[in-house]
Amino acid sequence: TSLKVPVNSEEGTYLRQVLRQKIGRASMLVCLIGNATAWSGWVDWEIRAAHKLGKGVCGVWLKSSRGRTPPSLSEFDAPVARWEMGDIVATIESAAPRRS
Fold first, then answer.
1. pTM of this prediction?
2. What is the 3-class SS of 4-44, one letter each residue?
3. Which of the two ends of the chain, N or C, has the fewest CB atoms closer than 10 A to its terminal CB?
């Protein structure tokens, strides 16, 4: 699931609540990794929330991205795919059994 409509709030508590509900309904969290993804506190929070909720977690490098892998993906030993369909599918399939 994704946020199709922006959450019009700057209040972190409310945003976390909305995101936690969305993550709770999903079976997997796929983190798209761009040039600045590793530095985002929100990305880190989402990865940790998904892991805590027992969701499968993996990453996918955006095409031509030169950014770092978010530390929480490395911490949870989450698989990361290159921007190639076969690699993305294999990575998602390898992350799915890690759900608890």
1. 0.84
2. CCCCCCCCHHHHHHHHHHHHHHCCEEEEEECCCHHHCHHHH
3. C
- The vertex-69 CA angle with 51 and 72, nearest 5°, equals 25
Q: pLDDT, tens digit, for every residue of 7-24? A: 555 677 888 898 899 999
Task: In whole angstroms, give the CA distance from residue 61 to residue 37.
Answer: 10
Specify the amino acid at residue 21.
Q
Residue 54 backbone dihedrals phi, psi, to 5 degrees? 80, 25
| Amino acid letter, residue 35 | N
* CB of 12 closer than 8 Å to CB of 39: no
How far CA 86 is from CA of 37, 80, 81, 92, in Å, comes to 23, 12, 9, 10
